Every structure is written in structure tokens, then in C-alpha cells.
């Protein structure tokens, strides 16, 4: 779906609300307080109410959009701009294309969406892991940049068809140390410290639960070259703080590259529910 068709189809707040409602009402099956299965929709606060204990579940409070005052139309627009293209857009490019008026708003929304993509990838790819090394001594031949990591960790899950394998690229142990140092430097004056500290990277204790299994050299070279093109082509000055979010976005698009449905609706259908 191109931009013109998207803005024509989803021009109202109600049409965007129905998309989120359609996917989240399948996940909210019962009341977390009393266990009642009968929940009724209320248009007054855009959420569900339990018919037994009257507990309210607003649509934003149980999703990744919680603690946000932006409309569903704004969220659906940013999700579309992130997911519709095979290539990644920088936050500045998304801000330029979108109808938003503040860069900080787009920045906050993109960080939350990438963080949710990382959680989806982590759940779907927890079977094997293997490291991918970037040999910077071949810099003249493969055009490495200063922000190219020395090595990453790939967690993946095998399926019957190779086209349906799920992966997640995460920072290595040294990369996480750099991330912690960067967080300490900017935590005092950074506008969104909660999002940065909630960076959902895999820990070494979680890797012990997975089986180490190398991948095919052809597949490894493909992932390595794609990351180099991504960092050099789209993100010219990528910081350590945002590297994991960029990797999560790439992993999500890679996992559903053959999906027939739009990646925006796939993202909402796979998003977690927070009760």
C-alpha cells in the first residue's frame, strides 16, 4: 500500500481505531481480576469493561502505546511508515514524510515501536544462537564504517521451510558494555531515559538456555552485508544507544519478508498485551 492510498483509506480516527480494536480484542480473552470471559466494548474511553467486576481495560493501557496521549491515527501512521518499506527509514525521514509537527514526538513513537519489535523477535527466535563477526581489517574491500560493530549475536529458530526462519540480531557482550556506558553519560539530560534503560537486549544468562549452532556461510554473509548497508546507507551517524533498535527493526522485517499481509497489521497482531 503506497502513501496516497494509505492516507485515503485511513483518513479518520475511527478507521484507525478499528484496526487496533480488531487485533487486541482477540488477545484480551478474560478479566485478569475475576477471570470473567465477558468483556464489553465502551466507546467512552476506547476500551473494554468487565461485566462482573467492572474493571476497565483501555486499549492504550494494555498495549505498547501506554503512557501516550497521541491518537490512534498518529500511531497507525508511524507504524505504516516504519513497516511498509523493505528498506529502513531514519527517524528524520519518517518525521519529514509524516503529518507530525514535532520531531521529539516521532522519535518517542519510533523508539517504542522498535522496542516492541525486539520483544516479538525475542519470543519467536529463542532456539539457537551463533555470533557473527565483522572483520574490520577488510575495510577497504567491504566499506565498513566507524559505527559497524565488531560482532553481533544471532538468535534464530529453524522451521521446515527456510523462508520462515525467525531471527533476532542482538548486541554482543562488548556492545552491551558500550551501551551501559553511553546510558550513564546521557541519562541525566536525555528526554526519554525510561525507553533507553528498557532496551531489551539478550543477557548472557539467557544465552545459556539456547543451543549454540552455526549458520550457513551464505546466510551469514547475507546478514553481515545487509547490516553494513543499513548502517552506512540509511543511518550515517548511528549512535550506540539506537543500534539495538535498528537491529530489531531489521530483524522483524527480515522475519516477515514473504508475508502476504501488510507488515503494519502483522506487527499489531504480534504485539504483546500488558495486563
TrEMBL record:
It comes from the Bacteria. This is Transposase zinc-ribbon domain-containing protein. It comes from Lishizhenia tianjinensis. The lineage of its organism: Bacteria, Pseudomonadati, Bacteroidota, Flavobacteriia, Flavobacteriales.
Amino acid at each position: 500500500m503506497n502513501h496516497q492510498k494509505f492516507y485515503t483509506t485511513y483518513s479518520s480516527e475511527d478507521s484507525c481505531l478499528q484496526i487496533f480494536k480488531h487485533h487486541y480484542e482477540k488477545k484480551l480473552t478474560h478479566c485478569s481480576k475475576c477471570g470473567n470471559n465477558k468483556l464489553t466494548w465502551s466507546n467512552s474511553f476506547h476500551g473494554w469493561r468487565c461485566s462482573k467486576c467492572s474493571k476497565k481495560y483501555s486499549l492504550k493501557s494494555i498495549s505498547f502505546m501506554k503512557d501516550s496521549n497521541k491518537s490512534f491515527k498518529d500511531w497507525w501512521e508511524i507504524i505504516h511508515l516504519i513497516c511498509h518499506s523493505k528498506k529502513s527509514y531514519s527517524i528524520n525521514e519518517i518525521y519529514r514524510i509524516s503529518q507530525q509537527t514535532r520531531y521529539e514526538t516521532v522519535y518517542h513513537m519510533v523508539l517504542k515501536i522498535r522496542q516492541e519489535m525486539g520483544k516479538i523477535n525475542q519470543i519467536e527466535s529463542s532456539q539457537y544462537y551463533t555470533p557473527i563477526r565483522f572483520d574490520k581489517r577488510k575495510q577497504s574491500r567491504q566499506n565498513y564504517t566507524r559505527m559497524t560493530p565488531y560482532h553481533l549475536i544471532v538468535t534464530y529458530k529453524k522451521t521446515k521451510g527456510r523462508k520462515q526462519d525467525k531471527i533476532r540480531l542482538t548486541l554482543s557482550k562488548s556492545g552491551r558494555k558500550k551501551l551501559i556506558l553511553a546510558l550513564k553519560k546521557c541519562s541525566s539530560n536525555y528526554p526519554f531515559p525510561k525507553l533507553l534503560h528498557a532496551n531489551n537486549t539478550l543477557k548472557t544468562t539467557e544465552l545459556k538456555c539456547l543451543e549454540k549452532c552455526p549458520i550457513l556461510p551464505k546466510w551469514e554473509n547475507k546478514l553481515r552485508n545487509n547490516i553494513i548497508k543499513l548502517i552506512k546507507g540509511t543511518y550515517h551517524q548511528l549512535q550506540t544507544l539506537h543500534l539495538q533498535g535498528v537491529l530489531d527493526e531489521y530483524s522483524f522485517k527480515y522475519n516477515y519478508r514473504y508475508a502476504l499481509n501488510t507488515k503494519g497489521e502483522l506487527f499489531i497482531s504480534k504485539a504483546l498485551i500488558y495486563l
